[in-house]
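Q: What structure does this chain adopt?
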Amino acid sequence: MIIAFLVLLGLALGSGLNALAYRLYNQESWLKGRSKCPQCKQTLSGYELIPLVSFFIQKGKCRHCKKKISIQYPLGELVTSIAVVGSFLWYIQNGASPEMFFAWAIFLVVWCIWFIVFVHDAKHTIVLDSVALPGIVLVLILQIVFHSLYGPAGEFIPFLGRILAAALLGAGFFAAQFIISKGTWIGGGDVRLGGLLGVTLMWPHIITGLMVAYIVGSIISLVWLGLKKVKWKSEIPFGTFLALAAVSVFVFGDALVSWYMNLFHFL
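A:
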């Protein structure tokens, strides 16, 4: 029953995040108003808003204008549901304690923020300050509260130093590129995402996150070039790679570093 509830919760959360991403981009209120078809602007009924199910019942098309519904919507719902269930199982394996539930809650917040970053940058190559800046503040507060409650005694100042250093390193890394290139290599939004990555992963995993983002970004970009989907001078939505790195390193950071070090030891 718990797993079934979490599956439904994840689907509903994914649907809400898709809707929020759309409304933020179109500067619409995310608290008022009914959901509409992005194509014909027809107000959607409850029947058309059932996460995942409605997409397949309607065969991937709007019931009114018959235009295709973006695969982003069912895919975002499904992936979010998997993330909710998988992360819950991951954390309770380490003990069903208040500490683990708090850690799980922080993961869900991190997922929501980076999900919207991913969608916006992938679709519009835009990083919204209305997402990145509040995200930095919210994640920073949650990390500080978590450490205050469950961190080692007497370690608060070193912890604060690590998270602030990571935020400055992440933001500074992209700010230096922005200044050197005069904004031709990256956009100003990437500077804010660097700060968000820092408070999400902290020191030293900010380094891991940057490495993962650049490795994944390079591989995918080369594939796109090979398939002629982009050109050498095309704008690449790097925020999507930062989002993938942020979530994966937040959960598997220690395991990734351990695997990397063991790989060199083996060689």
